[in-house]
Amino acid sequence: MLLRLDDVTTYYGQIRILEHVSLAVDAGELVCLLGGNASGKSTTLKTVLGIVRPRAGNVLIDDEVVNGFDVPARIGRGLAIVPENRRLFGQMTVRENLELGAVLRRGENLDEDFERVHQLFPRLKEREGQLAGTLSGGEQQMVAMGRALMSHPRLLLMDEPSMGLAPALVQQSFRIIKEVHEAGVAVLMVEQNATMALSIADRGYVLSTGEIVLEGAASELLHHEDLKRAYLGA
Asked: Comparing C-alpha atoms, which of 58, 73, 46, 76 is closest to residue 21?
């Protein structure tokens, strides 16, 4: 198993955020993590990445417990993240932001990687020398995704990829996520847009107040009555 959370409980100070959370992502899978605001979705990604450490339970990569690994060590194991709100360096160019994604690959020729990113996001080739902070929201999302792909990830963590995007750009963003997945990259995607996320995912989990309350095949969750009432407006 590429990634597994085994009975993970986390706290911020004295406040419990996740309680006995268990989930898994296998190589090549696209798994979505659904839930409302303050359900613990982003904290789950931070726990996977090592920003938050479990109070109990284990995080495993390739079946090895990595609770003591810091963020760079986990990135070195093949993780990359597209954070909520993109988190670009606005005073750096598009190309410089993309180069940061390959910081652990110093000395390697990155030409093929830039070509791959430009094939997925032709607009970034046009904007290569532009400051990232001057881009539109959709273009910034492209840079954030391209930056993550520059690290050659085995598992791409995505935190609310549709947030702040116009409907047409949401469609484009999910199409690209699907393309990345079909190219062999596993994806763990946190998302509030349940319908869109489940439409491209293999499996899904639903968090509520820090606990997993539903899990299963995406096609089954899409038609689950509890999920439809809570998240799909049915």
From this structure: 58
